[in-house]
Amino acid sequence: MANLVKVKLKIDGMHCTSCAMCIDMDLEDLPGVCNCKTSYAKAETEVEYDPEKIDLEKITETIKKSGYTAISID
C-alpha cells in the first residue's frame, strides 16, 4: 500500500456549502485522491492522496478549474 499524503488547503471564492460540495465531487473524481473534506465555514479543504498517482499541483489545478483558489496551509 502506498504512503498517503494529507494536505490542508485554504480555499478562496466559496459562497456557500454547495461550493464545498462541488469541490469535493471534483476532487473525488481524480485518480489518486482517496479522501477529501471541504468546509465552507472554515474556507478550507483537507485532501488525502497517493503521491504516486497524483501530485498537489494537479489537485490545486482542479480546484482552480472549478472556479476557486487553493493555497497550502500546512
Question: How many DSSP E strands?
Answer: 4
CATH architecture: 2-Layer Sandwich
| Strand numbers in spatial order across the main sheet | 2-3-1-4
State Rg. Answer: 11 Å
Commentary on this structure:
This protein has two helices and four strands. The protein is of the alpha+beta class and 74 residues long. The protein has one domain: 2-Layer Sandwich (Alpha-Beta Plaits). A hairpin with a 4-residue loop joins β2 and β3. The chain starts with a strand and ends with a strand.
Topology:
Elements: E1 5-12, H1 17-28, E2 33-39, E3 44-49, H2 56-65, E4 69-72
Antiparallel strand pairs: 1-3, 1-4, 2-3
Short description:
With 74 residues, the chain is α+β, with helices and mostly antiparallel strands. The protein is 30% helix and 34% strand.
Features:
single chain; Alpha-Beta Plaits; alpha+beta; 4-stranded antiparallel sheet; 74 residues; 30% helix
